[in-house]
Amino acid sequence: MVRLDGASSGALVEIRDLDKKYRRGGEEIDVLRGLNLDVEKGEFVAFMGPSGSGKTTLLNLIGGLDSPSAGTVRIAGDEISALSGRKLAAWRARNIGFIFQMYNLIPVLTAFQNVQLPLLLTGLSKSERKRHVEDALALVGLSDRIHHYPRQLSGGQEQRVAIARAIVADPTILLCDEPTGDLDRASGDEILDIIAKLSRDFGKTVFLVTHDPVAAKRASTILHLDKGSLLERAGEESDGKTGEKPPAA
Amino acid sequence: MKYFHIIFVNLKRKKIRTLLTIGSFMVALFLFGVLMTIKTALGSGVDVAGADRLVVRNRISLIMPLPYSYRDVIRQMPNVSEVTFATWFGGYYQDMKNFFPNYAIDPETYRTVYPEYIIPDEQWNAFVQDRQGCIVSPPVAEKYGFKIGDRIPLQGTIFSGIWEFNLCAIYDAAEKEMISPEFWFQYKYLEEQRPFFKGTVGWYVVKVKDPAGAVAVTKAIDERFANSPNETKTETEKSFAAGFANQIGNIRLLILSIGSVVFFTLLLVTGNALATAVRERTGELAVMKTVGFTDASVLGLVMAESLIVAVVGGAIGLGLAKLFTLSGDPTGGMLANFYLPNDSLATGLALALAAGAAAGIIPAVGAMRLKIVDALRRV
What we know:
By secondary structure, chain A is of the alpha/beta class. Chain A has seven helices and eleven strands. Chain B has helices at residues 4-13, 15-48, 70-75, 110-113, 121-129, 138-144, 187-193, 214-224, 237-245, 251-280, 282-290, 295-326, 342-369, 372-378, and strands spanning 53-58, 66-67, 80-88, 102-105, 117-118, 133-136, 151-155, 162-170, 172-173, 183-186, 200-201, 203-208, 232-236.
């Protein structure tokens, strides 16, 4: 269930009265304005909207990469906007997996070593880390590329390594910022299949930022950001629970 | 240790830059090692100078002699246990380039005032009994292949002509710093053979009974010979040795100046290299923070790179300096105790670490303060 009216409570993600302003060249820009959003566990939500509408900013706020100008972001009961830098880093490591458009793999590390990065922060033993990394890479179909460097992989394979890195620590939420934006249609579809599978079979709560309506259709809910506010529209494959256009937050 | 791989691959990604930065540390620490070796060699006399010994010389200059008669006067003074003396001879062996300090000593008192020198009794007795006897230090014996019983001719410079000597002893010393290129012979031989400066000595060395009263003895000696034709300047052996070493300049200041310039340059070079490396990896650092690396751990990773470069470069530089000094005094006798002490090695390594930390701190803090959102926007 996804709601925009700020009325529900107990959802995995609860965003209330969220404002985000940036200063650019002495001018203050309102990117997000009084935004409310509730998302239950296991939902697959796509954010669409024109460039500069605040999609990535909202994703960053949910992931604790940025702090709000006003309002709160509460994930599984934790108000992450109130966490200190160190606690926030630890919280991110446990709860959030990020997938970027440009993959953002570390070029001097192999696929195995890239995927292992989040696990270095845990107390897992070397053999436990190895098992987790191998499982994650198997899940994205890259067991045979485990010791390849990013430069030895195709774009789609790199993104699959990035997905493996995002899920290796078994986070609750996956944040995907245009994960297919740099891929051809076939590779993009493969990536979207994996992301959809993670939501469907593994119960991951997925937030997908995309400009691509075809990609957005994979989500159970499509939300449009426009001028700092969220609007829900019924997607062709959304469950249509709130098929009509809801009031702006 | 689980992060070591990340540090290692980051250092490896621009091999030439890493090698050049390590090379900067290597050169700087090599230079530091050589300078410390020179300082040690020049200051070795100062380090082993006896606290209970005073040196009395002519107030005008060290090259001006003092009357032999002063010996008995000084010996009678309170708190004086023994007085010995020596006179600079200034000869050389076969060729002027074969120079080593050589001077006439008083066999009756020299061993009493300088008990640190180890000479077997039979060798010492042979020296005392042979008017042309001489004693050399191990560096002189090794360099010229002298053996006990050899006849050694020295060409006089102050007192002209060939002076013949018989090698009776090769001394040793408990402390390595006591051993320097030296040649001693009997004062009586010099006194009998020289045509001028008869009845004089170069300088006196006074052994005091109580070092706490050394200042009073210093004052008493200089006051006793004040307003005489040969006024004295008395000082502790330590300040005499320091003054002797400083004749070629203020070594400490020289080393400090060169060292400071080198290390400052090193900071700029290393700091710039590391800052460039961090700038190139902005996106990667942001990703690491995104997956949960804390600001402190990112700071630690960057600092570790800088410190590893510093330690590796520093260790190689100091190792090369040590190797260089193992080949011995390159000046042929001017720097007898030419070796790099272990405490200087430790100081060098500490300096390398400090320079590495100072060079790394600004880029590391920059990496620590990196805002993930801003950095990802730049990728």
